[in-house]
Amino acid sequence: MACGTVTAEVQYLKRLGLYETEKPFQLFFPVDKNSEDCRTTNLEFESKLQTFVDIRDRIRDFSLDSHGFQILQRPIVLDPSSYLNRDAVESHYLPEVKQILTTIDQGYDKAFIFDWRVRNSATPREEVEYDMNDLTRWLRPSPTVHIDQSPRAVVQRVLLHLADEAAYLLQGRVRIINVWRPIENIVQDYPLAYCDPISVPETDLIECDHVRRSFTGANLYAHFNPGHQWYYLSEQRPDEVLLLKMFDSDENVKATRCPHASFRHPLSATGAKPRKSIEFY
Fold first, then answer.
1. What are the pLDDT digits (tens) for 216-261?
2. CB 197 within 8 Å of CB 257
3. Strand order in the sheet with 175-182
4. Within 10 A of 145 (CB to CB), how many other CB atoms are there?
5. What is the three-class DSSP state of 250?
6. Who wins on pLDDT, 92 or 196?
7. Which of 103, 146, 101 is nearest to 10 (CA)?
8. How far is the first Cα of the chain from the last one, in angstroms, to the nearest whole number?
């Protein structure tokens, strides 16, 4: 069985001297080969071993504000075959995601979902270029340790999507929560792991620009540190929803964000069904 505390590799951004003079970046569109600088990225990663602690028997010990992640049990309402149908997802599952968010402590004035993605570990690795506007295209699980939104990018998101209300909303508590769950199968081959943010000093994180044709956002990548404390939920079922905190403007809570990555489980059986998952922001 793919369970228990295990050691596996994830990918960290290298600590390059380059990043002292040039900000990490990634372009999500082709660059003219005749350009003076035809790079689409300056990111360089390295694989590092980390230990991942299985929380299967202690799920209730973890919450969004204490560790940056939380597990909820919620039945799945959408048929697995419908997750590649954008209209079905956005008309049926999106309201369910908003209902799940109502369980978050202290509530909120407004919930807004600005993006969602589907992932499949059987997606060929060679497919590296994709249309960011195609929400139903399978992506592979990401092995890189990252946080999907940097603090600066969060403010940009609010101004972009909620311009008329931004001045009011930015005066209060702003949070970005990833609502993540498996679809169709339990997760055996590529579980999603979460790093205790208390174990990640600020110096281990670096902002990276994500440049699209019409919008420039930013995430955070992590550099390796042997002190990072990692967790995962073994054989996560489709009725087990993961809430993962990307950002929290309330600096009084213990966990304001949660680095995460997927890893190849060393005990997954040969021929295990590939992980399929969906995530909303």
1. 999 999 999 999 999 999 999 999 999 999 999 999 999 999 999 9
2. yes
3. 69-73, 240-248, 175-182, 276-280, 116-120
4. 28
5. coil
6. 196
7. 146
8. 31
